Amino acid sequence: MELNQFKIKVLPLRDKLLNYARKMTDNPSDAEDAVQEVMLKLWNLRQKLEEYRSIEAVAMTMTHHLCMDMWRTQRLNNLPLEGLQLSATVASLECLLEEKDEFRLMKEIIDCLPTLQRTIIRMKDIEEYETEEIAEITGCTAEAIRSNLSRGRKKIREIYLQTIQERKRRNEA
Known about the structure:
Elements: H1 3-9, H2 14-25, H3 28-44, H4 55-77, H5 93-111, H6 115-126, H7 131-138, H8 142-172
């Protein structure tokens, strides 16, 4: 499926997917993230989309699964410590909490970036898209992608180091 066909067959589904995601997440921001993720997945599957009877059904299923994953992740992040059961083979509770804390911190830092930088960072560093693919999807030039990626990574590094230093100061006090 070429870009024009994708625009005609898939992009019109966006509003329907967004309404569905809003109902499932009760959070407009999470719904937007979920739909954006689904659209990117559909774009990556564009060569195989013709094999499905209903692209809309595939898109709705993807949205449903992604929203459920988001819900599960949020539920796990909100579990009280008493709910955690650690076996002897699992790392110590302290290590587990540190990893969870680091993951949460990085997610918060990435979420506070400007939208374009956040999107590019996620596509490049998390979903491992190539620069050319990101440029095609976002409509930016490859140079703009590299520039935003560099600025975003620099900002993440600065905020991360500041946060770590603040934590050390608090622990020493």
